[in-house]
Write a structure and sequence with these properties.
Largest sheet: 9 strands, mixed
Distance between the termini: 67 Å
Strand content: 35-45%
Number of helices: 3
Number of strands: 29
Length: 447
């Protein structure tokens, strides 16, 4: 009996050692805030019954409980519970005197108990704002539990960030602005009296060779902010670069076998349509060599002041140097007169040009002229078509439906009986005499 007892104790001890050394390191000892320090605001952080409790304080700005150590590549897991307050988990974040007097800035994984349901999305605190919200991943909106504990998993490996809430995949972000920084637990500023709280426990991390990333999944959309690259996830989803970032391979002029001789130039990985010269003559639209039936097209675009352009699909090459088709409008709505023409704003940014006005996104997601926008066009096999702008669906319609036919009959295309009738299409980038930039043009076919 004595030998058996000793053997059992040895087995228990061995399993305990294995649990501590299976690649995970605890960031919170369950008793103290050792290894952490507070930055910015004076919210209250305390340890109670094995949890860190962060409580809001009236009049205090965003507060952060930050790790003493910085991390580059890692896998982080944490359990959290919150009432009605907004919060977040900072990763690869920084606090430097030269940046807004030490203001904490960097990537934040959202904790959002509101009906908006953006938990697990990624926000760039005090810098660029929202990078990935759950409008593009509706399944993720159901992941967060408003009542009870939630389990977060965050993988940050190289420029790739992946998040899960309660084991449901939420975000897949690719960005290389900051590759190392601290982890921090945020208590958000409040307008009221304060006293709201959030709890964290079971905070652990894997680094180095101990990291065991989860397999890729095909369901989570990718927001890729790096230049003309395809991640393994995008490749698995079937995306290909339509613009290689180097030259005009895969593109041609309308009615031609080669690209326009002038006007379209590639500069530092960016495709640029130059403004017209003093004569006002157009260089001509740029059209893809390949054609597509059902597809998802992603593209970044940047406007200059007063600029007009567009991305067209279901295109007929009926005009000299110009194609005719359905158009995702690209426009400076404030300065270009076309925004006030048409009907009910159906010539404004991201609209189905002259047919359907786009839903206007919240001002926080409206990029200034000279900043990059993320556009998306999805054509499904059932003829459902969507326009997306900066992560939000802004147009949806069914091609050839009765409503579509009525809209077409009241548009500038009414007299063209063959307008957009084809079943497959090249992708067209419009030359409208103005300076406009494109990059990260990617496409996948939808079967």
């Amino acid at each position: 009996m004595k030998k058996q007892s000793i053997l059992i104790l040895l087995l228990l001890a061995t399993s305990g050692i294995w649990a501590q050394n299976n690649g995970w390191k605890n960031l919170f000892d369950g008793k103290t805030l050792k290894g952490w320090h507070q930055l910015n605001g004076k919210a209250k952080y305390e340890v109670v019954n094995g949890t860190i409790i962060g409580s809001t304080v009236k009049g205090e700005p965003n507060s952060f409980l930050a790790t003493d150590e910085e991390y580059g590549d890692f896998i982080l897991e944490v359990d959290l519970k919150v009432g009605n307050m907004n919060s977040g988990i900072q990763i690869r974040s920084l606090s430097k005197p030269e940046f807004n007097n030490g203001r904490v800035h960097g990537y934040q994984v959202e904790i959002d108990p509101s009906d908006r349901a953006w938990s697990g999305g990624i926000y760039d605190e005090a810098r660029r704002g929202w990078m990935y919200q759950t409008e593009m991943n509706p399944a993720a909106k159901k992941a967060f539990r408003k009542d009870g504990w939630n389990h977060y998993r965050i993988e940050a490996i190289g420029p790739v960030f992946r998040t899960w809430v309660n084991d449901i995949p939420v975000a897949y972000l690719v960005d290389d602005m900051t590759l190392k920084g601290f982890i921090a637990l945020q208590v958000h500023a409040v307008k009221g009296e304060g006293g709201e709280s959030i709890q964290w426990k079971n905070i652990r991390i894997q680094t180095g060779s101990s990291m065991k990333p989860r397999p890729l999944d095909l369901s989570t959309p990718v927001a890729n902010y790096t230049l003309n690259t395809l991640t393994p996830q995008e490749q698995a989803q079937g995306f290909q670069l339509l613009f290689n970032g180097k030259d005009l391979t895969g593109w041609r002029g309308v009615g031609k076998q080669t690209p326009p001789e002038q006007g379209w130039v590639v500069e530092d990985g960016v495709l640029h349509i130059l403004p017209s010269d003093n004569t006002g003559a157009k260089y001509g639209d740029l059209i893809s060599v390949n054609q597509y039936k059902a597809f998802e097209l992603n593209f970044d675009f940047k406007l200059t002041e007063g600029a007009n352009s567009g991305v067209k699909y279901f295109v007929a090459e009926t005009f000299q140097n110009s194609g005719l088709g359905l158009e995702y409008q690209i426009l400076d709505d404030v300065r270009h007169p076309d925004a006030k023409m048409g009907t009910e704003g159906n010539r404004t940014l991201a609209s189905l040009y002259d047919l359907i006005p786009s839903n206007k996104v919240d001002p926080r997601f409206q990029k200034k002229i000279g900043e990059w926008n993320q556009g998306k066009i999805i054509v499904y096999p059932n003829r459902l078509i969507q326009h997306w702008l900066n992560g939000f669906k802004v147009v949806e319609y069914e091609k050839d439906s009765n409503i579509y036919k009525v809209l077409l009959a009241h548009s500038k295309y009414a007299k063209n009986k063959d307008f957009a009738k084809m079943d497959q299409t090249p992708i067209l980038l419009q030359d409208h005499n103005n300076s406009v930039y494109f990059r990260n043009i990617k496409i996948r076919e939808i079967k």
